[in-house]
Amino acid sequence: MLLSFKPKRVRSGLTANGLREMDYKKSTTLPISDADDRTFSRSRRAMLCCQKARQLERAGEYEAACEALGDFWPDPRRSVALKDLDLPARAELLLRAGALTGWAGSASQVGDAQERAKDLISRSIEIFEQLGETARVAGARSDLALCYWRQGAFDEARLILKDALHCLTGNDEETRVITLIRQGMLEKAAGRYDDSLKAYDDAAPLVESIDNHAIKGTFHNELAGLFTRLGLAEESEARLDRALVEYAAASFHFEQAGHLRFRASVENNLGYLLLKIKRFPDAHAHLDSARKLWLELKDVKCVAQSDDTRARALLEETRLVEAEAFARQSVSALESGGEQSILAEALTTLGVVLARREKAAQSRAALERAIEVARDSGDPEGAGRAALSIIEELSSRTPTSELVSAYQAAAQLLEKSQDPSTGKRLISCANKVIGSLASSTNDGQLKDHSWDGFSLKKEMLRSEKRLIQRALSDSGGVVSQAARLLGFRHHQSLIALINSRHRDLLAVRSPVKIRRRSVMWKI
Fold it and tell me: From CA 275, how far away is CA 194, in angstroms rounded?
């Protein structure tokens, strides 16, 4: 039996002027006010400001962290003031500015944020390499990989994380555990669940040894997400129970760290788990809580992801009108943010909702765009899932040749997937494609080497009827739209064709609406 879990809400007490006392004493022995002490050299003050900003960043207080760097980075959209700083201070300042550009840009969905973050972090890496600071190089590469991952460039992020781990010696456990957690997160997003679990297994003993609630919370939250996916794919109640236990641990540690932003993430993830096991009232309660917290934090991306999760919940409940509204809202918010992988996921959700609402043409456009966005960004798993959705949702309205092409593309894109549910979907879709092939073979097609009973006129009528039927289906029965799809200049031509040759299609078209007489006639 699944455990129940009701995490408490907690507010962060962090500001740009200081950390919560309990967390700050654990993180540093330097007084907070030292960063503002003008008796220190400019380089020393820069290092202290970076230290303060890093703690705020880890607590999810990105705006406050940017303010902490204000003396050296007054405008986050402009360059960092590096004049009169020594090399270590320059490297630290570039790294913090880069990491914060990535985090804050992701939250606000600023289109070029990840590119600017990559540039700043890369410049910091160059300096750290000059200084021979291998641990700092590794940490910076871990932050750089995060930028590539946000853009959906999974292969590049994977290579950078491997390089980061290779740079580390046994002395910097905190950087190693952060990098391993990110490796697990990346592989989970890429559908490589075995690789993800291995990364978390490697991280587990290190997590126990460090004294950082934010890192511990992230580990448990991400591990819970992996057990959620495995539990759902394998229909394993034990794994789902384990996921709930991990979510409880994550919530505790985020509460201790004062990390409101990631606490909201736990709420959203719990909502997703609960909707998948059909506990809809509980799911909506958690999703409401997560969305409210993210709105307070003005986190555009996370609100959009919450809306996507909500759309899926409403889809499961067949509340399709509401599902479409949330799905469109999610896609709209993610359009300009540059995070292509999550945009593709939102487009896939929208495409499925539109298909269920009998809006086939719009559904196809959304799903085909999801494939393109995911594939171009380097997320084959996301592209493959969207391709499978075309077969699952639109098979009856798609020519057999296109279904075969969609399946071949999906199979190629998903060949490295370690997600058990993907294998099940591939088998199910293969059966649909085979069924379509069998149907097309028996439906009005000629037998090889036989002209017995053939009539060119009848064959042309059958083909004409199939094309009109598909156009009506894709346009939701609206004759004017179907006429445009078929290339008619006037929809009356299509109406005449249906009335004269294909009267059985009258039931497919939408009911004729009596148009109101224009008020102009009354004048």
Answer: 25
